[in-house]
Amino acid sequence: MTAPTHRILRALDRFNAAHPWDHNAHYHRWILRQLPARCARALDVGAGSGDLARLLATRAEAVHGVDADPEITARARQLTPDTRHMAVTFTTADALTGIPAASYDVITCVATVHHLPFAEALAAFRQRLAPGGTLVIVGLYRAQTATDYLLNLAATPLNAATGWLKNGGRPAPRPVSMTARTRPAERSFADLAREAQHALPDARLRRRLFWRYTLVWRHTVAAHD
Q1: Would you say the C-alpha torsion 39, 40, 45, 49 has a positive or negative sign?
Q2: Contact present, 42 and 129 (Cβ < 8 Å)
């Protein structure tokens, strides 16, 4: 790496640190568009501070969020209004073994599945998803192909511009939802797609901007175990 390129990247890192924004929350509204207008029960795995769980409560009669971090789970409870119009609960538990033994019409998992054994996580989600239900994952993948690197390159200036716009051009503190450290992804998109098609036939995976991919799977009656 040349010295000018190194200086540019360091300057970009400083700019992004001064204008942070939540890349995961960027996809929350997109997630809602994949879901039915109304459903009975929803589960958010890796719920963090509860932003997505509270959004899911606009669609579901009851929402349960699971996260392994007790501090962020406590924060999620503090941020969630205690009203009869928002039936949202949070539990500190392992994302796989701690999922409540219930059936859900919607399961979401954002920036969490790369911390887990991927095939085991998909199997656990499938087991908990009711026939006719929808699973939506937003995850991270390791860049490997030319397409991956070109998409990442395109995201770099957009990332800085989005941070500047979302913060009104002013420096800002990190959002509460970004307090947890995210581990780099180890699997490539091709690896994830191959494993997903084995575990969840007809799952739809797409590369996305801002170093993310999405997976959507409908648990049709034919796919029911």
Answers
A1: positive
A2: no
Convert the pLDDT of each residue in 31-80 to its tens digit.
999 999 999 999 999 999 999 999 999 999 999 999 999 999 999 999 99
Among 22, 49, 225, 60, CA closest to 136: 60
Annotate 202-222 with b (16+ C-beta within 10 A) or e (fewer).
ebebebbebbbbbbbbbbeee
The pLDDT, as a whole number, for residue 185 is 85
pLDDT digits (tens, 9 = 90+) for 147-173: 999 998 887 887 777 666 766 766 656
Residue 192: which of 134, 144, 132 has the closest Cα?
Answer: 144
- Pairing state of beta strands 104-110 and 60-67? unpaired
Domain ranges for the chain, please list them: 1-225
Reported CATH class of domain 1-225: alpha beta
pTM of the full structure: 0.87
> Distance between terminal CA atoms of the chain?
52
Tell me whether residue 16 is exposed, middle or buried, using C-beta atoms within 10 angstroms of its C-beta: 0 to 12, 13 to 18, 19 or more: middle
